[in-house]
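Hmm, what's this shape?
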Amino acid sequence: MAESDQQIIRNIEAAIVILPEEKKQFFLGFAEGMAAMADQLRAPEGVGA
């Protein structure tokens, strides 16, 4: 993982730890949605569509 990616993760982590639980759940859902979208983009054409 690139250093810039690692810095982004550290910055997000620093912000999330101070959030109330319901806001943390929002970001968890957001991250899961992003991961699902990335998986679809990486899947061979016609798979998972």
Summary: The radius of gyration is 14 Å. The mean pLDDT is 89. The longest helix spans residues 21-42.
